Here is the input.
Amino acid sequence: MAAPLEALDLAALLCSRVCHDLISPAGAIVNGLEVLEESKDEETKTFALSLIKRSARTATARLQFCRIAFGAAGSMTAQVDTGDAESVARGSIEDDKYKLAWNLPRALLPKNRVKLLLNMLVVGTLAIPRGGTLTLDPIGSGESMGFRVTAAGLNGRVPAAIPGLLAGEATAEPIDAHAIQPYYTGLLARACGLTATMAADGETIVVAAS
Here is the structure.
């Protein structure tokens, strides 16, 4: 039984998710501009300019990621280059906290499958909130390809609600901005004819769609 969520609520929660990703770098840009405007110290100005540049790059990378992971990105039958998907994933996810091992072959895949793999990577970060490595591998090949994201990090765990949200099961609590990512990932998997799961595998956590 799928978790009940109206189309308007889904759209609103996804918008909240995007805003959550962008508010931090946008706020840092504003703070940097204020410091740049008020400070007369050259060292402080240099620091502020560095903050603005770094935050602008972060905001741009996250917007590019969100455009593919959540946006329309062309027609319903559009295909997306996995090389482009890798580029936006590295720009948005990889930092001092998370590293990405991308083992997919370069190919054109249906849009929803690429959206699915990007959202699976984000779900994978939820299993290792203290950071670690996300390894993306293919399951099968061609346009029917599924995906496996292995999250390895300190104190990795399967958050209690996520397997049910991926499966589209009915929930006791309303779906909120924190739950929308795995819920949406499950929707994408089912739209691709796949089943999304999250489970522990030894000391790692695996998010799979097959």
Summary: The two ends are 19 Å apart (CA to CA). The mean pLDDT is 91. Residues 106 and 207 are 21 Å apart (CA to CA).
